[in-house]
Design goal:
mainly alpha, single chain, globular
Length: 317
């Protein structure tokens, strides 16, 4: 009989804590175009993430029977039919929650759902897998910025680059990898950390589109938006917070990746992948703080300790 724990293991329940920060980083950079309805978007992201995890195990059920027989489907605790139905239901819930935030968010949410299904059913066994997976994260950031997307592009690119590195490394979770893969991941982590710190500075303000029309200028209200996208306010404190969080991200994720470069065996690669997944949280918090939204960054960062505790009971990979 399928239990709640079986389903939680199927969808990698704790890993969803690394997702809400995507939409919050995008929304903060874009000036909160959905207003109060932004609250629907982290939930939409989590549902689509869980859908992708269930669909992943459905698509990999034959391979997992050989490589990971302890997983819910090959162990017989969850049937393939139930996993597919759960993925479909969570996808519908995610797209519906995106629609509740607005029409533009619905469009991005539908595109994100299509990319999730394309990854699991088509792209995963191919060399394009890391790119398609990264596109999921980029679209998730843009889900928060729908209605004023341009200022959120740097944040989307940062999380996209991080996801390419983590996904490429994760392909060695079962058989191990070559030292070049975690070295490349560590180099990517360093570049992303520097970019996240710089985005909070004066040059970053221009990159985020905050003052494209001059000091104090405001963008026109996007169609369907509930509030004007005001230029993000960056104080010395927000810049310091963004830089500190970026350094935390670089230290935790990069150190695990360099350890995998020294010992590229499967257990070490698996640990580095898990750290890379959880490492999205300080990166998201850095990008959110850099956009001038310190309270939202604190909310994102609070998910970190919870994720660490939860992954001790349920694997995030």
């Amino acid at each position: 009989m399928t239990t709640a724990r079986d389903l939680a293991e199927l969808v990698r329940l704790p890993a969803a804590l690394t997702v809400p920060g995507d939409t919050l980083a995008g929304a903060a950079a874009a000036g909160w175009p959905a207003g109060a309805r932004t609250a629907f978007l982290p939930a939409a992201s989590a549902c689509l993430y869980w859908a992708g995890m269930a669909l992943n195990d459905y698509a990999d059920r034959d391979l997992d029977a050989v490589e990971r027989p302890e997983r819910p489907i090959p162990s017989g605790r969850v049937s393939p039919r139930h996993a597919l139905a759960l993925a479909a239901g969570l996808t519908a819930a995610g797209v519906g929650l995106a629609a509740a935030a607005g029409r533009r968010h619905l469009v991005i949410g539908a595109a994100l759902a299509a990319t999730v299904w394309s990854y699991d059913l088509l792209a995963k066994p191919t060399p394009l897998a890391p790119v398609v997976m990264a596109a999921n994260r980029g679209l998730d950031v843009m889900l928060g910025a729908a209605g004023n997307p341009r200022p959120a592009l740097p944040a989307a690119l940062a999380l996209t680059a991080h996801t390419v590195a983590v996904t490429a490394l994760s392909r060695g979770e079962v058989t191990g990898t070559t030292p070049a893969v975690p070295r490349g991941a560590a180099a990517t982590t360093a570049i992303v950390a520097v970019a996240a710190a710089l985005l909070a500075g004066p040059a970053g303000a221009a990159a985020l589109g905050g003052r494209a029309a001059g000091a104090g200028a405001r963008r026109p209200l996007p169609a369907g938006a509930t509030t004007a996208a005001a230029p993000p306010h960056r104080s010395g404190l927000t810049r310091l917070a963004a830089a500190g969080l970026a350094a935390t991200y670089a230290w935790t994720v990069g150190r695990a990746q360099l350890e995998a470069a020294r010992r590229p065996d499967a257990p070490t690669v698996r640990r580095a992948t898990g750290v890379g997944i959880r490492g999205m949280i300080p990166l998201q918090a850095s990008l959110t703080a850099g956009a001038g939204a310190l309270p939202a960054a604190a909310v994102v960062l609070a998910a970190g300790p919870v994720a660490r505790l939860a992954t001790r009971r349920l694997s995030a990979t």
